[in-house]
# Entry
Amino acid sequence: MAFAFALTQTLFSLLLLLPIYSTVAQTNGAITLGASLSATDNSSWFSPSGDFAFGFRQLSNTDLFLLSIWYAKIPDKTIVWYANETLAPRGSQVNLTADNGLVLTSPQGQQLWNSSSLNVASGVMNDTGNFVLKDSNSNEVWSSFNNPTDTILPTQTMENEGSLFSRQSETNFSKGRFQVRFLDGNLVLNTINLPSTYANGPPYYKNGTIGDNNNSSPGIQLALNESGYMYIVRENKQRFVLGEGVVNSETDYYYRATLDFDGVFTLYSHPKTSIGSWTVVWSVPENICTDIFLENGGIGACGFNSICTLKDSRPTCKYPPGYSLIDPNDQYSSCKVDFIQGCEEDKLSSTKDIYSVEELTYTDWPTSDYLRLEPFTEVDCRNSCLQDCICAVAIFTENKTCWKKKLPLSNGRYDGKFSGKAFIKVRKSTIPGSHLPNPNNTPDREKKNQDGLIIPGSVLLGSSVFVNFILIGAFCYGFFFIYQKKRNKINRGSSVLDINLHCFTYKELQDATNGFMEELGKGAFGIVYKGAIQMGSNIPVAVKKLYSFAQDSDKEFKAELNIIGKTHHKNLVRLIGFCEEGQQRLLVYEFLSNGTLADFLFGDLRPNWKQRIQIAFGIARGLLYLHEECSTQIIHCDIKPQNILLDEYYETRISDFGLAKLLMMGQSHTNTAIRGTKGYVAPEWFRNMPVTAKVDVYSFGVMLLEIICCRRSVDMASGREETAILTDWAYDCFREGTLDALVEHDMEALEDREELERFVMIAIWCIQEDPSLRPTMRKAMQMLEGVVDVPVPPSPSPFTTTTSL
# Structure
């Protein structure tokens, strides 16, 4: 029955596609003058084979479209050319005209872009991926191959002075800061200083000069052939092959060479069947983090003030302690200092001991030097930076040299071969996200403190005995208050962790929450209250008051909080600070206005399909970060809709991440996730099996089904025993081909049945009873994105009884 249904669906899909491919075959990919496409539908101009399409691609989560060329037959529809980063609003049109060639106009008729081609008679979308405009004599007057963006395709060539530019990010098609050039017969990679095209030097990659040897002729052309070989053509027609050889058959694989947004130039292959994903054939440079060295300024592999780390041959960017991303949604952007630093600013501080030093191993900023001290000791190097108002970082090397560096820091990298140490200066009690000086250290406050030593004395000398008595009492009380405050500050300072978290007093949080009056929710760890704190401005927060905390767990609490405090990801709720006084333990989080995913999914109105899918992506990205991209792996242990929060734009934020790990050492009796929440707990919790990150994968799979179906994982109130347990019912529906019933005939979800089925299959893989069968979150993310094929999953439990076919 399932096979017959699948066969019927396949034949039906082929019948739907037949008119499209028939039209393409009849026109042989040719486009006539006056033809147009609109940024409102899925119409495209296909190449004769259907391998490539030209048209509009909608950018995710926006109402904007990109005029582009893409691979039409593979799931991820990889874009290989686009119209100069021009974004078109819905309703825009592209027309083929005789005077300007391709003309892109907005819905209001404003011209957004044109190919600037004269005497155009026709266009053609070729099977090579090249869109060509021709005159009446069939001469080429414009082509996408001669106006490349970030990709070279087989049969495409690059002449001397030709170039490619990276995009700004995976989803941002604005011009990025990396450039490939074919210069003087060589493949050259360099960074550029946006918004100009000035190329920083020296290049971070150069293939080796062709033509310096008298016995070889100079290179005149860079080419990629259909077999996946990239080479330089010399003047004498000889070829200089770049990279490694390709063993795949040219008839079975697609190839492309792309300057990725992270600056790595990569040759990829992809099987021409829809199964599979893009695989790296070769890439340059070998280590972009260490290969970029810009002596004359300019940005490195990561932004200013950041640190580049190589992971799986790709750069990842992190910010040092006391710094944060200028654009939190772009990890490759520059970082800003989260405190005021400077010679004038330091003079305003009431204490000389305002900075501490963070030690980073294997970390270096090889440029930004302003002073070299030699010979020098490690202690002297550290202290010299602390006492120097210009110094941001000092690098101490094994040859007893101290390099002092000033802002902005560039070309930061983590290099296991570097034997030196970096001492980065951080202001004590830095509040993440605050760009204002400590309110207790402002000039006005400083002046008042100084004046305060004089004014009371003057008043005392010129007042009556009674008034003096009152003032003396007030003065003593004030002195006692200041003394207590300073003593509390010292006590609190001793417990401030090695992270950018603010340490609050219990009284401060009691006041911030109005006596813990407004309860937002409660869980296994504690109760959450709404509050507001003053950090430059009135900031709404969510204060989690943890249940009774064991005194002997204090060390573990600090150690784990140190790890959690260093996490930073757009899909995680930001931890602002904490409180540890006696038995009291509280955590202060940012407040998110749109509540929990549970409220969003299980309300009266069903959210739209695209919004639900984007929420699933956000949760997956957050879990992937916790599992693989943190300095220490964090297992959430309690993934459920109540722990997923939504900000004002309905972006996903995982809350309580790491809290289970933080409390489990001394607090397993709090039912953290060992018993967990009914319907989300992985089976290994109950079978004395090792608990790994796969428990989060299981919970994610359950929640993915809830997102798909907009219903709870366990629903005994429905009165239908066969549908009460969502995981069992979902597998039954998948096996029987009745996904319509699973989504309650949600027309939005059913519009793309293939995508719906893929998401259900991913969820079933995630809820496999055997942890070894579950994918990692990275693999699950790749399957969600469609870059990895999703095999047909087995029954999630060999012991689960399902209805027969």
